[in-house]
Input
Amino acid sequence: MFPADTLLAYFAAVLLVVLAPGPDNLLAIGRGLSQGRTAAVLSSVGAGLGIMCHTVAATLGLTLVIQASPTAFWAVKLAGAAYLLWLGIKALTARNLIAFEPTAHQPLERVFLTGLLSNVLNPKPGLFVLAFIPQFVSAARGPVAVQMLVYGAIFAVATAIIFSLLGSSAARLSRWLAQRPRVTAGLNVGAGLAFVASGLSILALGHRR
Output
């Protein structure tokens, strides 16, 4: 059902996708810098679970329904864009995405939920999963739904592991950054602008049947 050459090609493609800069890995890195490895891992697991939610939705046909319905598509698009814009504006104004004061730290459950929602409410991963995973699926190799879910699980686990490694590596810089508030402020501004850009790019998504 899963030929070795197909799995290798799929995994190589997944690595490229996961390592590409985006709001989810920025969140994991930001959590690692400000709150340490545990927060980075929780944010990363949330992002991975979000990928799995998109995979299940695509497998059940929900993503196709959203694509076919302009109203549903706009509702999901506006929700995702609003959430990312809110994260970006908050990072720009409060400058607390990366913050070292204990009072500025987020509860770990909120860290996980933010990582999850930033992925689930973003229609781009859902549309990407719908377009990406089926390229590696073949009805001749067994049930399509099982293949979709397995490939999605690989994508989700790779996302969680790689983001965790990025966030944990960033955590090592926290002591150095804590002594350089201007650099920290610049990173917050950069992250905020990245979230705003991601939100605006979602608003620019066109509806295609």
